[in-house]
Structure formats: C-alpha cells, structure tokens
Design brief:
Structural class: alpha/beta
Largest sheet: 7 strands, mixed
Strand order of the largest sheet: 7-8-9-10-11-12-13
Order of helices and strands: EEEEHEEEEEEEHEHE
Distance between the termini: 19 Å
Number of helices: 3
CATH class: Alpha Beta
Shape: globular
Number of strands: 13
Low-confidence stretches: none
CATH topology: Metallo-beta-lactamase, Chain A
CATH superfamily: Ribonuclease Z/Hydroxyacylglutathione hydrolase-like
Mean pLDDT: 92
Radius of gyration: 15 Å
Helix content: 10-25%
CATH architecture: 4-Layer Sandwich
Strand content: 25-35%
C-alpha cells in the first residue's frame, strides 16, 4: 500500500486504492485526479480548504468532514464526530478525536478529528492536528500518519510518544515543510522512534 500513498505536503495525502482518496487537500497543484472520497480533519484553512476540495471534487465525490466544517463545503458532505463509524462500499472509517493536551490551538471541545481508514486490506491512521492522546492507545493500524512539527501539533519527541501508543507497522511523518516545521523534524522522529519510518518526498499534484 505504501507505493499507493502520495504526500502532497503539510497534512495532505492522496491514496490510490480501490477508491481514490484525499486527506486534508491543501495548496494542490498540477494534474489532479478527481477524488472518490475526501477527508477533512477540522475547520482550519490549511485542512478545510474549499478551493482545494473543488479542484478534485466530482458530482459523486463523497466528502467526510469534521462537524466544525459545517457551512464551508458543498456537495455530498458527511459530517462526523469522534466515535462515529462510516462505511462507503469497501472503505470503512473510524473517526478518532484529535486535539492538543499542552497547546491551545486545538482544544478537544473544538471537535477536530483523525481517521482510521481500512481500504484494500490495509488500515491507515491519519492523526489530524493532534498531540499524543489517550484515544490513540490500542489502535490497530498498519500505517500511521503523525504530525511532528510542534507549535500547533505534536513535536517529533511527542510523536514518538504517540507512535508508542499505537505501535503501527510503519509511520509516515507529516505536518512540516509548509506552514511550520521542516524535514529536520521528520528526521528527528525517525532517529528517535524504534519502528519503521518512511519520510516521503513531497509531490504537489
């Protein structure tokens, strides 16, 4: 599945599976494949970007978005909150809280989320903008996409704490190189965590 995952910078990913999936599309450029499903973790402009959603949205594209994005998106939008589960044909989604524990930017009550996607036999967790939180404990995932930049989200060191809660087979660092953080944060995480880490090169397409 790793070869089907493209990092589009910041928290944005494209997953080319049986459904073409985008997560938190932001500052998209180049030739863009239309999405089957788009996931939005919370209302901040670098995650819920209506203009970027429009670039990859067809009439039948399903958008799964946190409740706090209401009024910002058009089309077939399914609003979700932590604890929800969604089934879209062979794609199953578990909605997990995403929040800060020692920063003020993403309070739990704001309703930000992360997603556990099971597609084509692989389970992928996109943590959204989060610190290490109790809800991560015991998640059974193959691939975890974890923020590492600090400031608004977990630092590289805190991301190690998150990874230790989850124990995924593989971690892809994210949330750096655009608004805050740099590749050095991803490298630090890779140096600190004992498990497998893949630092993807950005593809803005």
């Amino acid at each position: 599945m790793l070869e089907n995952i493209t990092w589009l910078g910041h928290d944005a990913f494209k997953i080319a599976a049986s459904k073409l999936i985008y997560l938190d599309p932001f500052e998209l450029a180049g030739e863009l494949e239309p999405a089957d499903v788009i996931f939005i973790t919370h209302e901040h402009h670098d995650h819920c970007s209506p203009e970027d959603v429009a670039k990859i949205q067809r009439e039948d594209t399903v958008v799964v978005a946190a409740e706090n994005c209401r009024g910002m998106l058009e089309g077939d939008v399914r609003y979700v909150k932590a604890g929800d589960t969604v089934a879209l044909d062979d794609l199953t989604i578990e909605v997990i809280s995403a929040y800060n524990v020692n920063k003020q930017f993403h309070p739990k009550e704001a309703g930000g989320v992360g997603y556990v996607l099971t597609v084509d036999g692989t389970t992928i967790y996109h943590a959204g903008d989060s610190d290490p939180i109790p809800e991560m404990e015991g998640l059974e995932v193959d691939i975890a996409m974890l923020p590492v930049s600090g400031v608004y989200v977990a630092t590289a060191d805190e991301a190690v704490e998150a990874a230790n809660k989850i124990r995924p087979k593989l971690v892809i660092p994210m949330h750096y190189g655009s608004i805050v953080g740099s590749r050095a944060d991803a490298e630090r995480f890779k140096e600190l965590w004992s498990g497998e880490v893949v630092i993807l090169e950005t593809e803005r397409s």
